[in-house]
Amino acid sequence: RTKAKHVQRVAQVLLDRYRGRVPCSATELTKLPGVGPKVAHLVLSVSYGVDSGIVVDTHVHRFAGRLHWTDPRRARTPEHTRAALESFLPRELWGDLTVDVIGFCQTVCTPVNPKCETCTLNSMCPSSAIRVEPRSPRSDSREEQEQSSISALAYEP
């Protein structure tokens, strides 16, 4: 219900204030009802190809915490995690990070019972439940493609 109301209100505001055009800055987008930094950065990335910030949802937030890319005492919210990640990840990775990490977390680094034994980041993940030697991908499965993309992001801040 709330999302539907926000969509209706946003549509009306876009017509009234922006002549039906979607703003092209995070500052303007976050002035719209129900639009926070996550949605603003997502809209800019998808609609305009502008990587104005890392889109941090619960998956990205969990992933960053498990890899100890963020300090759990400081990065208690996705917005804190976004600021922390943006402080050390190169800007050219910001756009792909969200898509790659979300897919990876839906299939491998799940909230409950993560598949640590098949994870390509296992050997460097401080939160891994099981230690196994890294293996090289042998097929083109979706899971392995996502893990390959994730491996490219395996920074140690």
From TrEMBL:
UniProt keywords, alphabetically: 4Fe-4S, DNA damage, DNA repair, Glycosidase, Hydrolase, Iron, Iron-sulfur, Lyase, Metal-binding
The record's section on InterPro entries has: DNA_glycosylase, Endonuclease-III-like_CS2, Endonuclease3_FeS-loop_motif, Endouclease-III_FeS-bd_BS, HhH-GPD_domain, HhH_base_excis_C, HhH_motif
Q: Which family does it belong to?
A: Belongs to the Nth/MutY family.
Cofactors, names only: [4Fe-4S] cluster
Taxonomic superkingdom? Eukaryota
In alphabetical order, the GO MF annotations are: 4 iron, 4 sulfur cluster binding; DNA binding; DNA-(apurinic or apyrimidinic site) endonuclease activity; lyase activity; metal ion binding; oxidized pyrimidine nucleobase lesion DNA N-glycosylase activity
What organism does this protein naturally occur in? Pyramimonas obovata
UniProt region (Disordered), positions on chain: 130-157
Q: Quote the protein name from its UniProt record.
A: HhH-GPD domain-containing protein
Q: Where is the composition biased (Basic and acidic residues)?
A: 132-145
Which segments constitute the HhH-GPD domain?
A: 1-107
